[in-house]
Amino acid sequence: MKIAFHGAARTVTGSKHLITLKNNTQILLDCGLFQGMGAVTEKLNDYFGFDPGKITYLVLSHAHIDHCGLLPKLVADGFSGKIFCTAATMDLARILMMDSAKIQMQDAEFANRHLRQGEEPEAPLYTDDDVVQAVSQMKIVDYEEDFEIEPHIRLKFTDAGHILGSAAVHLTITEEGRTTKVTFSGDVGRYGDLLLKSPQQFAQADYILMESTYGDSLHKDLDPIEDMLLEIIQNTCKIKKGKVIIPAFSVGRTQELLYALNGLELKGKLPDVLYYVDSPLSSKATEILKSHPEVYNNGVKETLKIDHDVFAFKGLRFIESLEESKALNNDPRPCVIISASGMAEAGRVKHHIRNNISNAKNTILMVGYCEPSSLGGRLIAGQKVVDIFREDYEVKAEVRSIKSMSAHGDYEDLLQFLSCQDPAKVKRLFLVHGEYDVQQNFATRLKDHGFKHVAIPEYHQEFEL
């Protein structure tokens, strides 16, 4: 049995991990888009590093686009097998992949309207028809179900606590009388998340693929999230009369923000300003979350006893049309705008940042992980001038960050996730989904906790198990 790492290798996005058995059965774990990688992003997304037509099965850990976003291209390029995932992941992946296809088709159409003589027309990575086909190949597997993919290959999902439907993947593979247990963490959530249950424990594994996004960080803020939001909104909207622009992923982060703001209203503390969610995708994702109340933690279930809609409050409006979105730029009133994408690399939020970044009255609030080269990453790093739509803008707005809102666990959470394992029985632990320097630091920490065989795979590197 071999495993090769064709994405999220010494970087955070583009999740693709390929297990090949001795009989040439191929199991692909995730098939995600690379994001925020600058000029090389397009090239990385064009090349799988393997033949899609030879993949037998795909197991999808969760619906974030850096884990599912290349599924339609995989299908278009020849993959015809089953895609195993949880029910909520299928619901979310459908809308996220369809949104991705729409953006790519629009971008290609725009580029082709401005072709120079001799230039080749651009084509999208995939179309909405490819998304429909990919969804038709999905097979739902429930959490903790002992599912037989085929004789000698069994699959179990446990809740990873990262986003709605997210799962750690556990494969039990028997070859030539020998059984091997492989666990892929997917993305691990926080213990004590605002909305979701904590990650579940899991059975002993022989090999572990472990995410490491925040492998050298602790998400320790001095104040609770509600208090930090209150302070930032009061200071920006009430004192400076400005706008708070919050780049937030449509799935997970936006709903956490709405829940925290709703909490302020329940306590009578919510500032009386306008609140906009400017992302049609966020609206759909919020409705899907409402339809899966089984994922809520006990705190949310208690709140539901006194408030039937924990994602709604006074002054909140969901913006649908592009015209309404553009109108916000000309509205001088103080307000809070929550908009995708979370790394500020694309989508409507990029326009809101461009229109507000050079005014000291305003605040740009980052609430999640950003690739260092993304617009969000450059703002967090403190750059004084940033390029937006090929123009330079002076950063006069205040840039703030709430690190504790990350859906990714910090190193304490990651170590707690692994605490159910006997390190002496783990033959090798592979670190994926992290920047290389972060992974090196986390590898040292893991070795101190007894995991002696830690590897940090390179892009396309293959290992014998």
Overall pLDDT metric: 94
CATH level 3 topology of the largest domain? Metallo-beta-lactamase, Chain A
Structural class: alpha/beta
How many DSSP E strands?
22
The level 1 CATH classification of the largest domain is Alpha Beta
> What is the 3D shape?
globular
**Poorly predicted residue ranges:** none
CATH superfamily of the largest domain: Ribonuclease Z/Hydroxyacylglutathione hydrolase-like
Question: Could you give a short account of the major beta sheet?
Answer: 7 strands, mixed
Intertermini distance? 6 Å
**Gyration radius, in Å:** 22 Å
Helix content: 25-40%
Whole-number total of structural domains:
2
Count of alpha/pi helices:
14
Summarize the structure.
The chain is of the alpha/beta class. The protein contains 14 helices and 22 strands.
Describe the structure.
There is one protein chain. The strands form four sheets. Strands 6-5-4-3-2-1-22 form a seven-stranded mixed β-sheet. Strands 7-8-9-10-11-20-21 form a seven-stranded mixed β-sheet, covered by helices on one side. The protein is 31% helix and 22% strand. The protein has helices spanning 41-46, 65-68, 71-76, 87-113, 128-136, 225-239, 253-266, 280-290, 298-304, 322-329, 348-356, 375-380, 411-418, 436-448; strands spanning 2-7, 16-20, 26-29, 57-59, 83-85, 138-140, 147-150, 153-159, 167-175, 178-184, 207-211, 243-247, 274-278, 316-319, 335-339, 363-366, 385-388, 391-394, 398-401, 428-432, 454-455, 462-464. Helix 4 runs antiparallel to helix 5 (128-136) and helix 6 packs across helix 7 (253-266). The protein is of the alpha/beta class and 465 residues long. The N and C termini lie close together (6 Å). It is built from 14 helices and 22 strands. The chain has two domains: 2-217 and 407-464, Ribonuclease Z/Hydroxyacylglutathione hydrolase-like (Metallo-beta-lactamase, Chain A, 4-Layer Sandwich); 225-405, Rossmann fold, CATH 3.40.50.10890. One of its GO terms (molecular function) is RNA endonuclease activity. This is Metallo-beta-lactamase family protein.
